[in-house]
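hey
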């Protein structure tokens, strides 16, 4: 299709489309071409849509065959089971009263269950469904938080964590071991800290090795009194 850029004395894109529209009207009146097979009620929706697009997007976007659409901003989803009242009030249609009802209804198992709360209709929910979740995403693998999410499953088993840093810890240790506080991280996310017991003979080399973050540690996860700890086992 010609444009002012490559055809200086020619029509604009809108004028060119206007001519096409007139020709199509003439063909419709004379029942020429496809209009001879079409019903009288058929509308020229194609050109109408193109002309509308040229008004809203500009001739250049029209001629390129695409409409400029701004990139959708990323929405940080709110966990309705842990959000504060102030956070809930940021949702469309949710004020202090409905926010309090949501809090009193916890735990909420599914997003659809919100319509069971008085004052929240299907239409209200549709306005913020895309902004909420009912539970936090699981912690990343190879972090302490991941294993603490299901302790009974991993107790007395060897597990692997990625160590971010190690600090000394002054606690009573089993004979032949020294305690450290092991801070974990994975894929750029903090994964919590856990007590780890290291055999005396490996302690110095251990602290040197894990001075560099991002290295894996394999240990036995077990419960000591009310705490859960990792133990480096001798082969």
């Amino acid at each position: 299709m010609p444009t002012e850029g490559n055809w200086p004395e020619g029509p604009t894109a809108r004028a060119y489309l206007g001519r096409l529209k007139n020709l199509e009207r003439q063909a419709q009146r004379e029942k020429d071409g496809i209009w001879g097979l079409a019903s009288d009620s058929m509308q020229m929706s194609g050109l109408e849509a193109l002309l509308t697009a040229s008004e809203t997007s500009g001739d250049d976007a029209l001629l390129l065959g695409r409409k400029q659409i701004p990139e959708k901003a990323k929405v940080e989803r709110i966990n309705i089971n842990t959000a504060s009242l102030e956070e809930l009030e940021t949702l469309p249609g949710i004020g202090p009263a409905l926010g309090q009802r949501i809090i009193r209804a916890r735990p909420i198992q599914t997003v659809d269950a919100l319509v069971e709360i008085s004052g929240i209709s299907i239409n209200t929910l549709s306005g913020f469904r895309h902004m909420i979740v009912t539970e936090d995403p699981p912690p990343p693998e190879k972090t302490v938080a991941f294993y603490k999410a299901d302790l009974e499953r991993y107790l007395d088993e060897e597990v692997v964590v990625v160590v971010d840093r190690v600090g000394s810890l002054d606690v009573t240790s089993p004979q032949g071991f020294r305690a450290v506080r092991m801070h974990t991280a994975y894929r750029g996310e903090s994964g919590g800290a856990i007590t780890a017991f290291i055999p005396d003979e490996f302690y110095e080399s251990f602290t040197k090795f894990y001075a560099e973050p991002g290295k894996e540690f394999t240990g036995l996860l077990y419960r000591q009194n009310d705490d859960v700890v990792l133990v480096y086992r001798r082969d």
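The mean pLDDT is 78. DSSP finds nine helices and seven strands in the chain.
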